[in-house]
Amino acid sequence: MLHGIAVIFDDTIVAQFTLDPLRLILPANTGLFSEMKPYSFLNMKKSPAILHPLILSLLFVTPTLAFADHHKSTKIAQADYIPGSWKRTWTSTTTGLQSSMTKVIKKADLDNHFVETITNAFENGKIRGKRQVRFYVEPVVGNMLEFKGTEIRNMDLKKSSWGDWREADFNYLFQVDEVFWNEVHQNLEDSTKGRFTRIDSDNPKHTYQQLAQRKLSVLEPFIGVWEGSVEQIDVKAYGIKAGSQKIKHTIQFNKDKTIMFWHWDGDMIDGFGAQSYHAPTGYIRTNYHTSTGNQINGKLISSGGKKFVWERSGDTINGTLYEKCLVDVSEPGVFKHKIYDRVLNGIAQPEEPVVVLKKVD
User: Fold this and answer.
1) Would 164 be classed as within a structural domain?
2) Residue-number span of the structural domain to which 94 is assigned
3) In terms of pTM, does the model score above 0.90?
4) What are the helix (H) ranges across the chain?
C-alpha cells in the first residue's frame, strides 16, 4: 500500500508528503532546489506555514497522477484502427529464407484495451511460434500511440495448448491507419522494419479507398476550371517556344475521390495527369504526359496554408528533367503555378514567370 509520495525534480526531492493524513514535507534547506535528503519518509517534519506556489500545485496534482488508472482511460479515436489482422514478411540475412509475423487483434471489454494473437511462421507456412499479448494504448502526439503490454502467454505447439498468463511490461511507439501499422522499437530509421499490412478487418471502412479519400482531401482546393494567360519564355525542358499562351486548367476527382485527374490545355502544350495516394510510401504521387513528349512522375513533398510543393522528375525529348512546382491556391479563386530549381541534364534552366489563373467554374 502507498503511504507517501516524493516530488522529484532533476533527481532532487523538492517535496514529500504522506497520504494518511496528507502532510507536505519540504527538504531541509531553504529554497525550491534545496540539498537532497535521502528518499525516505522516516524523517518527516512539520510543514512551514507558507509554501512555494509550485509545491502547492504539485501537492494537488501529484495525488491524481499517483492514482492514474489505465482501466478508466478516455476512448482514443485512433485506436479504432487497431482491431483486425495484420501481417509483415521479411527475409533472413543469415539463411536467406522468408519468414512472416501475423497479428490478429481483438478489442477487449475496456476502451483502448486489446488482445493480440501473434503467429510466427516460415515461408512454407510451418508455425515456429505463437503467443498472445494483452495490451492497452495511450496517445503520444498526433496519431502516434504507445503500445503497453500488460500480460503475455505462449502456446505449446506440440500440445496446441496455451500456457498461463504472466505479467509483462514492455512498450513501443506505433502508428496505425486503414492499411498500415508502423512500429518504432529503437529509432525512426528502423521503423519501416516493423511495418504490417492489414489483411482483414471487421470494419468496412478499413480500406485503401477510405485512406486515399482522407489523404487526397487536402487537394480539394484544386477542384475547378481555371483560366488565364502568360507571356511564355523558351522552355527547352518542355519543348515550348516563347510567346503569349492562353491556358485552361481543369481539375476534378473521380466518383469516390480516390484519384484526382486534370487537363492542362494550353496554346503551346497539352498535358494530362493524375494524382493518387501511394500507400507504401505515404506520399501523394502524380504522373503526367504532355503533347511535347514529356513523361513525368512526382510527389507532394510539402503543404500548408493551401500552398503545395511538388517534386518532379522524368524524361523529355531533350533529356532528363528535375524540378519543383509550387501551387498556391491560398487566395480565393486564384491558382498560381511557379516552377523553380529546374535542371535539365544536370544544367540549371532559366526561371519562368509565374502562371496566374482565375477560377471560372
Assistant:
1) yes
2) 77-206
3) no
4) 53-66, 208-216
